[in-house]
Write a structure and sequence with these properties.
The chain is of the alpha/beta class and 304 residues long. 33% of the residues lie in helices and 25% in strands.
Length: 304
């Protein structure tokens, strides 16, 4: 079922649209709820600079690597505390959890979720996960936050923030969920303070580490097919789970033996869940080459 909807959203054939049309009444209702919510929203001013990195389309749009680049830019140029706040998708914990503070990682990836741990390990930011973003913002303020990077919060119209909207290079299906990948009607992008489009304002750059002649691709990401154009030579098999899933070491070892793989090829996001297994890893390291004029727009907001 997941595979079917991923194809419907990201690589649809004519027969996928039969299902999309059947689901259109639900899609219209889903989009209408979001539209009405935005009309009557009264954004709360938390009196701290908040930058939201979000998107309108489900699946990987580069939010986490973009947040990492943004944090790196501001931590190098400005003094002060940066906090990264997310829901912590895929974590086993509930409520508010401090993942990292003052350079110390306080929990494991099961309590933080993979994306939050990736940010914790690759930036100087303090990291909090919480279903209630307002609670996390208040805690960050108490701890001296000068800048808060809010993950995946474009739809949080109740928070006064600077909205960065990442927009995919191509969107073959423009319907709203469940008929298509849009979380809101496409015209909702007008709410964004800054729209950054892939292929125009940023490009993905993939670097490889420790490649081997025979690798098993092991990932748990949305729309895993998007990795195909970045795969190096030597991939002899795949072990793909749904987004944010946790891995079983025995299953991976069995699959490595089945295809004769010497190493696991994985992403940075998945590596934070795999490194505890002490299996040989090959890494696809995703970075974003971002138009610096766009970063300057965020900087203007921060300095205002």
């Amino acid at each position: 079922m997941i595979e079917f909807f991923e194809k419907l959203y990201f690589n649809p054939k004519f027969y996928h649209y039969i299902v999309a049309v059947i689901l259109l009444p639900l899609s219209f209702f889903y989009g209408l709820v979001g539209f009405i919510k935005s009309l009557f929203a009264k954004p709360k001013d938390f009196r701290v600079k908040i930058v939201s990195v979000g998107n309108l389309v489900v699946g990987g749009s580069g939010k986490t690597p973009f947040a990492i680049e943004l944090i790196d830019y501001f931590s190098k140029k400005y003094k002060g505390k940066i906090f990264y706040i997310s829901r912590g998708y895929g974590r086993y914990s509930k409520g508010l959890v401090e993942v990292k503070y003052n350079g110390e990682i306080l929990v494991d990836v099961g309590l933080s979720g993979d994306e939050a741990m990736l940010v914790a390990k690759n930036t100087d930011a303090n990291v909090i996960v919480s279903e209630d973003r307002a609670d996390a913002i208040e805690l960050a303020k108490v701890k001296g936050a000068n800048l808060i990077i809010l993950d995946d919060a474009f739809s949080r119209v109740d928070i006064d923030k600077f909205d960065i909207l990442l927009y995919p290079e191509k969107i073959p299906n423009r319907f709203v969920l469940p008929s298509g990948p849009f979380r809101e009607f496409a015209f909702a992008k007008r709410r964004a303070d800054l729209i950054i489009k892939e292929g125009v304002d940023f490009n993905r750059v993939v670097e490889y580490k420790n490649l081997s002649s025979k690798m098993l691709l092991v990932v748990a990401i949305a729309n895993a097919n998007r990795l195909k154009r970045y795969l190096p030579d030597g991939v002899v098999g795949e072990y793909i789970l749904k987004d944010h899933s946790y891995f079983d070491k025995d299953d991976i070892v069995e699959n490595m033996k089945r295809v004769g793989a010497k190493t696991i090829l994985t992403t940075q996001k998945d590596m934070v869940k795999l490194e505890k297994f002490n299996l040989p890893l090959s890494l696809m390291e995703l970075k974003l080459d971002i138009n610096r004029d766009k970063i300057k727009r965020v900087e203007e907001y921060y300095e205002s």
